[in-house]
Amino acid sequence: MANQRSTLNTKLPVQLLALDGTSIPATAIHIALQYQDSVGSCEMTLEVGGATAQAILEQEWFHLFASARLDQASFEPDRPVRLLVSLRPAIVRKLAAQGLDAEDVFNALLPNADAAALPLSVPLKQAESWLAIELKQELALPEELTNEGTISIGLRTNWREKLAVGPGLREGSGTKSSVSLYAQMESYLSSKGLKAEPINEELMKLRFHAEEAEWGCVVQVDEDARLLVLYSVFPHAIPAPLREETALAFMGENYGSLLGNYEMDTEDGELRYRSTIPAGPELDYGILSAVLAEHLNVMRHFIPIIADVSEQNGL
């Protein structure tokens, strides 16, 4: 496996997304990537507005949990904040496996990045894939002190120490967790404010509420194969006259899809979207967050389209 040490300085906007699809406006300032074999790190300095920084604190984006904070801070909304984040180790290993560098990371974060050409663009754009290390904001000085230096406020977390020590964050280390995959998934959903209702030892269900629609989702947990499968069912079945055309359209969508695929029951017209997440020895929460976010984005995008098509055809 290749070794890599690369950096990139820029001041261009990048696209980052919260789990619920909320866009987090940010400008990339510096990216540093290094790895030897499969061990390494990737840190990125972002510039965000003060109001965005405050939202990051309140929403706990970038794993900025209260338990991880070493300081407390409140940021002025009209001044920029520098945010230092570190990529989760499991995704760094994927960068190393593909021999990617800092410029590749930056290109994957661009708003118009092609997910088909840059498969890691999806997880890299997810705030859940990055761990907040530090936030810092320079404050305005009184006019009489403008030549006396600068003063800043900041907030640090313990993520860097945990990344350095490793045992608590060593994802995919090869040791099977004593906690069941089902319990890990329930815990993850709970941490995101999502309530799952158990169906049996392998299935749980939940509902998603978005501005565009509301729909149900079933999570299948295969402990032996170490797989999670998400099935989201579109709220309205495809009317019989449109099923053949719809099937052909979604065959095309499946052909270019990297993270999931569409399935339709030709008998009753039920349409669902399926995403499969390999868990490995340990459930990778960064990858899970990225796949779940993409899964939700697909449903939010296509539910209104299908409803409009049915309405236009008087069905």
Summarize the structure.
This protein has 8 helices and 12 strands. The chain has helices at 50-59, 89-98, 102-109, 121-125, 159-165, 181-191, 243-255, 285-312, and strands spanning 4-14, 26-36, 39-48, 81-87, 130-139, 151-156, 197-198, 203-209, 214-222, 227-233, 260-264, 271-278. The strands form 2 sheets. It has a 6-stranded antiparallel β-sheet.
What is the strand and helix layout of this fold?
Blueprint: E1 4-14, E2 26-36, E3 39-48, H1 50-59, E4 81-87, H2 89-98, H3 102-109, H4 121-125, E5 130-139, E6 151-156, H5 159-165, H6 181-191, E7 197-198, E8 203-209, E9 214-222, E10 227-233, H7 243-255, E11 260-264, E12 271-278, H8 285-312
Antiparallel strand pairs: 1-2, 2-3, 3-4, 4-5, 5-6, 7-8, 8-9, 9-10, 10-12, 11-12
Question: What can you see in these coordinates?
Answer:
It is a single chain. This protein has helices spanning 50-59, 89-98, 102-109, 121-125, 159-165, 181-191, 243-255, 285-312, and strands spanning 4-14, 26-36, 39-48, 81-87, 130-139, 151-156, 197-198, 203-209, 214-222, 227-233, 260-264, 271-278. With 315 residues, the chain is an alpha+beta fold. The chain has two domains: 4-165, no CATH class; 181-312, Yope Regulator, Chain: A (2-Layer Sandwich). The strands form two sheets. It has a six-stranded antiparallel β-sheet. A six-stranded antiparallel β-sheet has the order 7-8-9-10-12-11. The model is unreliable at 165-176 (pLDDT under 50).
